[in-house]
Design brief:
118 residues, alpha/beta, L-arginine/glycine Amidinotransferase, Chain A, 3-stranded mixed sheet, two-stranded parallel sheet, 3 helices
């Protein structure tokens, strides 16, 4: 199964842009247009996964707290047969992504290892 987070406010993350080589340092485009494009791409990808019979759990992000990188949960959690592992995040707003309620949809997943305090 894939865990996918549908973004509520996808945008440039100023807290991570300074040390993320793959992220632009600034964006001149309209933030609303960028978010709308991200939603179109996300929804099209989910449709293609469904058409290919790939099981995907889609969780809707929330507007608050503002987590512009929420679409990338692979940075803070990984899933294993025995349970899930939580990872520390450098940027404070990336740490907030762990507050998103994905756990009620993943009742079978138990905490295997919590590295967030290390």
């Amino acid at each position: 199964m894939l865990l996918l987070i549908r973004p509520a406010a996808f945008a440039l993350n100023a807290q991570t842009a300074v040390n993320n080589y793959f992220q632009p340092q600034s964006m001149s485009d309209d933030a609303g247009a960028i978010h709308a494009a991200a939603l179109r791409e996300f929804d099209a990808m989910v449709q293609q996964l469904n058409e290919a019979d790939i099981d995907a759990l889609v969780v809707q992000d929330t507007a608050e707290p503002h987590t512009p990188d929420s679409i990338f949960p692979n940075n803070w959690v990984s899933f294993h047969e025995a349970g899930h592992v939580l990872y520390p995040m450098y940027a404070p707003n990336r740490r907030l992504e762990r507050e998103l309620d994905i756990w009620s949809s993943l009742a079978q997943s138990k905490l295997l290892l919590d590295l967030t305090s290390s």
